[in-house]
TrEMBL record:
One Gene Ontology MF term: oxidoreductase activity
SMART domains registered for this protein in UniProt: UDPG_MGDP_dh_C
Coiled coil: none
Transmembrane segments: none
EC number(s) reported in the record: 1.1.1.22
Organism of derivation: Heminiphilus faecis
Family (UniProt): Belongs to the UDP-glucose/GDP-mannose dehydrogenase family.
Biological or metabolic pathway of the protein: Nucleotide-sugar biosynthesis; UDP-alpha-D-glucuronate biosynthesis; UDP-alpha-D-glucuronate from UDP-alpha-D-glucose: step 1/1
Name by which UniProt lists this protein: UDP-glucose 6-dehydrogenase
Keyword Oxidoreductase recorded: yes
Domain UDP-glucose/GDP-mannose dehydrogenase C-terminal residues, every copy: 320-422
SUPFAM superfamilies xref list: 6-phosphogluconate dehydrogenase C-terminal domain-like, NAD(P)-binding Rossmann-fold domains, UDP-glucose/GDP-mannose dehydrogenase C-terminal domain
PANTHER family: UDP-GLUCOSE 6-DEHYDROGENASE TUAD
InterPro entries to which the protein is assigned, alphabetical: 6-PGluconate_DH-like_C_sf, NAD(P)-bd_dom_sf, UDP-Glc/GDP-Man, UDP-Glc/GDP-Man_DH_C, UDP-Glc/GDP-Man_DH_C_sf, UDP-Glc/GDP-Man_DH_dimer, UDP-Glc/GDP-Man_DH_N, UDPglc_DH_bac
Length: 438
């Protein structure tokens, strides 16, 4: 079986590598010539554990190809996946220009029955627009070639992308015919052999499922952050509350960790886009809107705790930031809380020293030399007045506090991810604060 995947971002590249690992012949397409040139050299543009080996193995086996031109493989493939970006417009809606461009190229060039499957997260109703764009191009050609559109949202998490793709909890596919369903079944059977959990449904429901899933997860986080902030005021501990509620099967244990806010390429964008879709349809999604509001506020919480620790005077204080990526195991800093915290600290006149195991280059690219880049987590704390933990990398979980205490000139530790034992740190003479506990 042969397929093409347009867009070699996170979703496109991981999907391409994983499909090819299952023996499918995959051509990955991207208009970015530099990116394709790098990929052909075996260079992976993103940090994702295991991806480099996977790509190399399948390129060497001759099952995974890269090109800048979709038309070179279009005649051979049964399915074209569209995994191009949908950056948010100023008003929060998803910009579909790349998605529709793929549709037009598809319409201008197909010669036989082919399915165009949208994998990018796109608002409900996009499939209709994609179909219209293809029909328009076919019309211009004066040809009547059979084709179909389908929706197959991707649920993989950065940092665990390969595992998530290889053994997904479920695969959701929106189709318009049995013929397309058969093709998609063939494609996904290898991934879910024994426990085949592909949910076929109508296209709008598939499009909606992705947004509902992300909005639900984001809601859990903002809910817990709200509860955490109240815990601090009433003298409760949010970690106890989390355990207390998570053991209820209906609630479940996962995704209930309070912290300094969610970031990344999905939650912030998708939550905004969903609110926008609601408004476009005359419906005000009040809960989801509040989720976004709470998260924006939560990104300031570490800064506020630092202000409090120094009685408002951060001018000239040296603050070490541990963790820049929006979560561990990635170098992605899109919408990362660290960006807000650093910005506020600089505005307050603090000196900022940062360390992250993989996101240093990304940080340099974004904020240049406004901050100092430390060689390691210990160098970052030399002469620091305070440490703020922003990303819960494993590396930060059990540091040598005695060394740190000596190296610092102050003793403030603000734990934005609740990874330390407060009692232990207090005994060592640190002034320790965390999220959701007074
Ligand atoms: C998310 C969805 O999980 C995935 O299904 C979808 O396809 C894309 O969006 P990702 O953006 O990779 O994936 O990150 P995820 O691991 O879900 O974490 C998102 C953010 O939530 C991170 O900033 C993380 O720190 C935060 N988070 C997560 C919490 O603050 N508390 C939690 O309990 C869980």
């Amino acid at each position: 079986m042969k397929i093409a995947i347009v867009g070699t971002g996170y979703v496109g590249l991981v999907s391409g590598a994983c499909f090819s690992e299952m023996g499918i012949d995959v051509t990955c397409v991207d208009i970015d010539e530099q990116k394709i040139a790098r990929l052909l050299e075996g260079e992976i543009p993103i940090y994702e554990p295991g991806l480099e080996e996977l790509v190399k193995r399948n390129v060497d086996a001759g099952r995974l190809h890269f090109t800048t031109d979709l038309t070179t493989c279009l005649d051979d493939v049964e399915v074209v996946f569209s995994a191009v970006g949908t950056p948010p417009d100023e008003d929060g809606s998803a910009d579909l220009k790349y998605v529709l461009e793929v549709a037009r190229t598809f319409g201008r060039n197909i010669k036989k029955y082919t399915i165009l499957v949208t994998k990018s997260t796109v608002p409900v109703g996009t499939a209709k627009k994609v179909k219209a764009a293809i029909l328009e191009e076919l019309d211009k050609r004066g040809e009547n070639i059979d084709f179909e559109v389908a929706s197959n949202p991707e649920f993989l998490k950065e940092g665990a992308a390969i595992k998530d793709f290889m053994s997904p909890d479920r695969v959701v596919v929106g189709v318009e015919s049995e013929r397309a369903q058969k093709v998609m079944t063939k494609l996904y059977r290898p991934f879910l052999m024994n426990n085949f959990r592909v949910y076929f449904m109508d296209v709008p429901s598939a499009e909606m499922t992705k947004y509902a899933a992300n909005a639900m997860l984001a809601t859990r986080i903002s809910f817990m952050n709200d509860i955490a902030n109240l815990c601090e005021l009433v003298g409760a501990n949010v970690d106890n509350v989390r355990k207390g509620i998570g053991t209820d099967d209906r609630i479940g244990k996962r995704f209930l960790y309070a912290g300094c806010g969610y970031g990344g390429s999905c939650f912030p964008k998708d939550v905004k886009a969903l609110v926008h879709t609601g408004l476009e349809n005359g419906y005000h999604l009040r809960v989801i809107e509040a989720v976004e509001e709470v998260n924006e506020r939560q990104k300031y919480i570490v800064f506020e705790k630092l202000i409090k620790a120094f009685d408002g005077g951060l001018k000239g204080k040296k603050i070490a930031i541990w963790g820049l990526a929006f979560k561990p195991e990635t170098d992605d800093m899109r919408e990362a809380p660290a960006l807000v915290i650093i910005d506020e600290l600089l505005k307050a006149g603090a000196e900022v020293v940062v360390y992250d195991p993989v996101a240093m280059d990304e940080c340099r690219r974004r904020i240049g030399d406004a901050v100092t880049y430390a060689k390691d987590m210990y160098e970052a704390v030399i002469d620091a007045d305070a440490i703020a933990i922003v990303t819960e990398w494993k590396l930060f979980r059990m540091p040598s506090w005695a060394i740190i205490r000596k190296a610092m000139c102050g003793n403030v530790v603000v734990d934005g991810r609740n990874i330390y034992d407060g009692e232990e740190l207090k005994e060592l003479g640190f002034k320790y604060s965390r999220i959701g506990q007074k």
